[in-house]
């Protein structure tokens, strides 16, 4: 459990050969930018520079770090180098040079959603993490994941064997029926990791520029080390790797050239604050909150569904040049409640028309003021129209 203030090129030389189990490094990316931000809570300014005189200067630093990293890793150890589009291609060559091409294990694509009206071209929504082992005898813990929804679980649960010609076939019992197994194992974790970026309000966010999510580091630590192993981060920044290592009961060493980074790492290690990601815990489908009935109403009017908004269920985009918000009255809402929610959700946004779809008779009167002030069109759902017609 050590935090070191200093230049990693020099500090790594002081670490004994063959003593570290896992190295994760998230160095400057050769973006040629200065990074600065404010923590907001303690008003500290955190900054580091990623400006270089030349690509050679940058690559020399990284190569020196990789040479020392290779020396201090155990034979069972691994290194994970985090980078992005700026220099990933050069860094992979350096890793091949220092660790050997045969020890390349994976290129992990850390993928996340980020919305931006970016300039011409594709929106960059991923970073790269190169995983190399020191030798072929590296430690690796396979993590199994759920099958994708399109997987035919029925087929997976049937035992297989090799035929005389080497083909994989279903194993049959004496009566010729397939033999079922209930040992559904799942699929091994892939090299594309869908992990959300820390959102600006996440309580885990420290204000340190380029801070990575603890959950990303916990995953790396879990697959490439055991409890009590030693994890090292030579560019520890806000201390994300160290916190993840502590939470997973690993020993850790963090090095950074910036005093405020080391102070912040110390603070984070004592506070142990991590944001729970709904996306990670419950999957992307947990954001889909619309019921089938609401989706079918939205489909029938060609509206695009909106999730997690109590006042707007969707937008009609094809009737006028401006989108029209639609709210569907819920079974438990009076039409007044539904109208209030629609008006609150659209307040100050200057929509020209609002549509409220009435689905039941839970109704109070006196809607006229709100309707007059906000061009709300209240229309009955097809169900309700049929119900009223039949009951007449
Ligand atoms: C991309 S940030 C790391 C962010 C970190 N992974 C996190 O989650 O907060 C890179 C860090 O490298 C540090 N750094 C740059 N050059 C260094 C060097 N030669 N030795 C040690 N640290 C260095 C910077 O101060 C900065 O904190």
Structure write-up:
With 392 residues, the chain is α/β, with parallel strands linked by helices. It folds into three domains: 2-141 and 189-281, Rossmann fold (3-Layer(aba) Sandwich), CATH 3.40.50; 144-187, no CATH class; 288-391, no CATH class. 29% of the residues lie in helices and 24% in strands. Helix 2 (55-72) runs parallel beside helix 3 (88-99) and helix 5 packs across helix 6. The longest helix is centred in the N-terminal third of the chain and has 18 residues, at 55-72. It is globular. Bound molecules: S-adenosylmethionine. S-adenosylmethionine binds at residues 7-9, 26-28, 48, 208, 210-212, 235, 237-238, 240, 255-258, 261.
CATH topology of the largest domain: Rossmann fold
Structural Rg: 28 Å
Helix share of residues? Answer: 25-40%
Q: What share of residues are in beta strands? A: 15-25%
Low-confidence stretches: none
In CATH, the homologous superfamily of the largest domain goes by the name: Vaccinia Virus protein VP39
Q: Give the total of domains.
A: 3
- Biggest sheet strand order reads 1-14-13-2-5-7-6-12
Through-space gap between termini? 78 Å
Name the bound molecules: S-adenosylmethionine
What gross morphology would you assign?
Answer: globular
State the total count of DSSP E strands: 19
Helix-strand blueprint:
Blueprint: E1 2-5, H1 8-11, E2 20-25, E3 33-38, E4 45-50, H2 55-72, E5 73-83, H3 88-99, E6 104-111, E7 126-133, E8 144-145, H4 153-156, E9 160-162, E10 168-170, E11 187-188, E12 192-194, H5 214-224, E13 230-233, H6 240-247, E14 251-256, H7 259-271, H8 278-282, H9 292-300, E15 303-305, E16 314-316, E17 324-328, H10 335-346, E18 354-358, H11 368-373, E19 376-380, H12 382-391
Parallel strand pairs: 1-14, 2-5, 2-13, 6-12, 13-14, 17-18, 18-19
Antiparallel strand pairs: 3-4, 5-7, 6-7, 8-11, 9-10, 15-16, 16-17
Helix pairs in contact: 2-3, 5-6
This protein binds S-adenosylmethionine.
